[in-house]
Amino acid sequence: MPASNNLLQKLQIQHPIFQAPLAGGGDTPELVAAVCNAGAFGFIGAGYLSPEQIGEAGRSVRAKTSRQFGINLFAPTPAPPSDASLDMAVQRLSPYYAELGLPAPTLPGKPPYGFAEQLTAALETGASVFSFTFGIPAPEAIRAIKAKGLLLMGTATTVEEALDLEKAGVDAVVTQGSEGGGHRGTFRGDFHAAMIGTISLVPQVVDAVRVPVVASGGIMDGRGIAAALALGASAVQLGTAFLTCNESGVPEAYRQAILHAGEDQTRITRAFSGRPARGIVNRFMTEMESGDGAEKIPLFPLQNALTRPLRTAAAKQGRAEFLSLWAGQGVRLARRQSAAELIARLVRETEEAIGRLQASSQEISRAKSGGTTR
Ligand SMILES: Cc1cc2nc3c(=O)[nH]c(=O)nc-3n(C[C@H](O)[C@H](O)[C@H](O)COP(=O)(O)O)c2cc1C
Question: Which pTM was predicted?
């Protein structure tokens, strides 16, 4: 692996590899701790957790590792209108509820906690990094995070977003390439315009900001890691690759869908949550977005709340056609193994890829100096 950089030293990790926060149950405490114990850095994706659950997750990770770990929340987004279109959304979902033997869905109520309460709980977990996506928390939240001594990392899908994050005081920017699985972090401008692939996004952000850049989106093996480092990233963040680890908490039907999917089988959808996210195409996604269906889907987090009971029941019944199968375009490279095995493989493959780069560089030098090349 390349010489350790500032970020690695600060976090006392051996490898420039972050396990992405995987909100929704992917990142169990077992996974986060196994990643940290293997010399990489694990995140608790706490976006959907209540303050109590955040406390529990933190304690559970701490009981399994003495290493540093991170926590992630969704930056607050404007509340979507709760109007008559919601009744139509409920009606559209009713047949699916019936198919899974569930009573008809009801309109989501106001959640009993907000970002402020989640943040207070997150800051008590003992995490040493706070990362966020979907926007930028308010200045007072950022001050509270920094006052606690946590490193701050925010997600950018464009150069402008990265500059906004730097201005807000982040210690590192996580770039999210359009290949990546899960929700898009885009918070400035148009979602479609912000679909920038990792190979384009990373060097442009690296050139624009002074803080370290962590590359994410479509990175599944050591070749991807070496490429991201060559583009100027200080570290990488992998999501999909960790979902098929033994310690991940995704339902087996979800894991199998990833293990059997190809690079052309994921798509950006609003069907499950109301916010654009990349997942493996399935029946629910296709049916909800057929015709003008996509326009009738309420915004995040309303649609997310409306489909949650459906997704929970589908997980219990092993019905992948109703699960949000978040995954990136690198799915074909996913393997089932332990987190420690994955990290050992990533480290080995990165060294091999860097070795190949060095060999080609020597070959180019020889060619330039008129030596023989075959
Ligand atoms: C199931 C799943 C859940 C995710 N949850 C979060 C999250 O809670 N917070 C966050 O910042 N990013 C989240 N992400 C996005 C990742 O941080 C990262 O951008 C993405 O996984 C990178 O692409 P890859 O999946 O191709 O590795 C999630 C991704 C997936 C696949």
Answer: 0.96
Map residue 119 onto helix, strand or coil.
helix
Which residues have CB under 6 Å of ligand 1? 20-24, 26, 45, 47, 72, 133, 155, 176, 179-182, 216-219, 237-241, 243, 326-328, 330
Three-state SS annotation for 62-79: HHHCCCCCEEEEECCCCC
- Ligand 1 atom having least distance to the Cα of 176: 19
Q: What is the tens place of the pLDDT at every residue in 319-335?
A: 999 999 999 999 999 99
Q: Residues 282, 323: contact at Cβ < 8 Å?
A: yes
* Sign of torsion over alpha carbons 281, 238, 242, 186: negative
Q: Over the stretch 334-362, which tens digit does the pLDDT of each residue have? A: 999 999 999 999 999 999 999 999 999 99
pLDDT tens-digit map of 186-202: 999 999 999 999 999 99
User: Among 157, 196, 214, 216, which is best to mutate for testing ligand 1, by the most ligand atoms less than 8 A from CB?
Assistant: 216
What is the C-alpha to C-alpha distance for residues 36 and 340, in angstroms, rounded to an integer?
9
Q: Can you spell out the DSSP letters for 314-370? A: HHHHT-GGGS--B--TTGGG---B-HHHHHHHHHHHHHHHHHHHHHHHHHHHHHHTT
Query: What's the pLDDT at 85?
Result: 82
Q: Residue 269: phi, psi to the nearest 5?
A: -140, 155
